[in-house]
Amino acid sequence: MILYFNPAYLKHSTIQQAIIQSRGHDTFSRLANLRKINKNHTAWYSRKGTNLLPFKSELIDIPGFAMPDYDPDYTQSWTQITDQRCHDLHTSHWHRPWLVMWSGGIDSTVIVASLLKNLDPADLDNITIACNPVCIWENPQFYFDHIMPNFKVVNSTEMMSEDFEHRDAYVIDGEPADQLFGCAGGYLDTLYQNPDLLYTNIINNKDCAIDAIAGLTDRPFAEWYYHVLVANAASAGVSVTTLHDLIGWSGFNNAWISVKFRVISDLRGNWRTIKNAKSYIDKFVHWYDSNEYQQWAMNPRNASEKIGSTTSEYKLAAKKYIHSVDNNGYYFKFKTKMASADLYSNQLLPPWCCIDQDWNFLNLQEHEDQIISMLPNHLV
Amino acid sequence: MLEPFDYGVPASPGDCHIGLFQPMLNQFLLTVNSIQHARDIALIASGRYPLFMVNLETADNYCKNLIDNSCCENWTLPSEQLAPTQIENYANFVVNAEHLLERHNDLDVSKEKQYLQVCWYYLKLLDQITASNIFGWRIKQFMIAIFDFEENQHDTLVQNLKKQVIAELYLCKDIDLVKVSIEDIITKAKKEHDLVF
């Protein structure tokens, strides 16, 4: 059984042929369009509600991939959840050193701010920050005022070339924060050019949503996917009323699983030696993957803390948290999402094609027959 | 007007006219007449906010005296021209303005305009110091980049002075304190080393 299919392999002719033979052109076309919405956060595994997507969701009950049932009475703030997350990880994961991936962006800066706020200064000896000059450029004041005086620092670029399998530390990163805040990656231009559009009511004005999706894909797909998202959110009991909600639900429900595997889905880092995904799952801690953060993200009361009203208020709750620790008014007022090119786009295929029920990575060179025979059962 | 101040308009034939546009404030904060200085200022100020480099002269309503540093904050770009920068392309491309739009707002950006003027002032000063102290600086930099030549001690002193001044501007929290600090660095360099100012 296939648990997870690496989106990059959709462009491989053998895979395309297998999908088309098994379920026809429409299914293949829908998968290809789901990938186009946001290539780095491919939205093709539904975690909650009625699954209307082409792939079966085999991981939805496994911690780390599951979505909790929506609790409308959940009232914890971003700050309370973030402080609690730090304390929880300190309890559950403190027996090994921590290696925190800091990019200088908002998500990973929240992590470091939380460590500074919630841990004893002596505890910081157990933590190393991995970053490089571009990360420091993204947030120089934070690096020089808060990271350099308090933590050991390693070069993340060099670190990525080291053998992951033999590393003792827990690696902590800022995934899947974009999924909590509405996945700006797919509509970054809109965030800059017309943020008001994101507040459009897409139930009364469904053409607005269909146009937005069609802008990234094609019209027939956009009409299909609009109805998939609305029906799916309703079956999950989650409120989706604005364009931001709708695109956010696509990322939160459908892209979460892909994002969890993103780090080992491409050629960055020395992942080629890993034969089984379990060691990655055990050692890699995604800070924002908790039921509490997910409850926060699902609650419509927090919508204004996700995008605010201007470009620079995207991830407002997270920026407020950082500001409470570093008091840097410039970062609070002006830091926003910046695009980053996909360095590995279309040039090379990643080392593995899918993950089987025993968490083994399968590749087309060695396991083509096995993959092709399992693929039809992975399709709805 | 607070000193230092430069109108930032083309002064000689061949000069360009580049606006530094702040996308969150949706206004220009500085105009300069050198692409190299525009790029350097966009990088130095990036510790505070991103600045996009915009070629003002391509705007269909551009004319002499339309925009300079006495009024640039009252101008903006059409929203379709506002696109997010790729991190890897930051300060590495120039947007050709299609049209310049007047923009009225009450936001006081005088502090930021002053900060950027100070950055530009010291970049120009560093250029003069470099030109006066390192013969053929660009050629030397090119040769050092491709061969294993070592910088001589005199050139290294100038480079270290530049590094210190730009680091002060980059990490600036208080412009008045930074100006004092930079003047101290320059005074010390004058006193201790055989540099021409």
How is this structure best described in words?
- The complex is a heterodimer of chains A (380) and B (197).
- Chain A is an alpha/beta fold and 380 residues long.
- Chain A has a 5-stranded parallel beta sheet with strand order 4-3-2-5-6. In chain A, strands 1-7-8 form a 3-stranded antiparallel beta sheet, with helices on one face.
- The radius of gyration of chain A is 20 Å and the shape is globular.
- In chain A, β7 (354-356) and β8 form a beta hairpin.
- The two termini of chain A are 13 Å apart.
- Chain A is built from 18 helices and 8 strands.
- With 197 residues, chain B is an alpha+beta fold.
- Helices cover 41% and strands 11% of the residues of chain B.
- Chain B has 5 helices and 6 strands.
- Chain B has a 4-stranded mixed beta sheet with strand order 2-1-3-5, with helices on one face. In chain B, strands 4-6 form a two-stranded antiparallel ribbon.
- In chain B, β1 (18-22) and β2 (27-32) form a beta hairpin.
- The longest helix of chain B is centred in the middle third of the chain and has 24 residues, at 110-133.
- Chain A binds chain B through residues 134, 137-138, 140-141, 144, 188-189, 191-194, 310-312, 330, 333-334, 336-341, and chain B through 22-24, 46-50, 79-80, 82-88, 90, 170-171, 173.
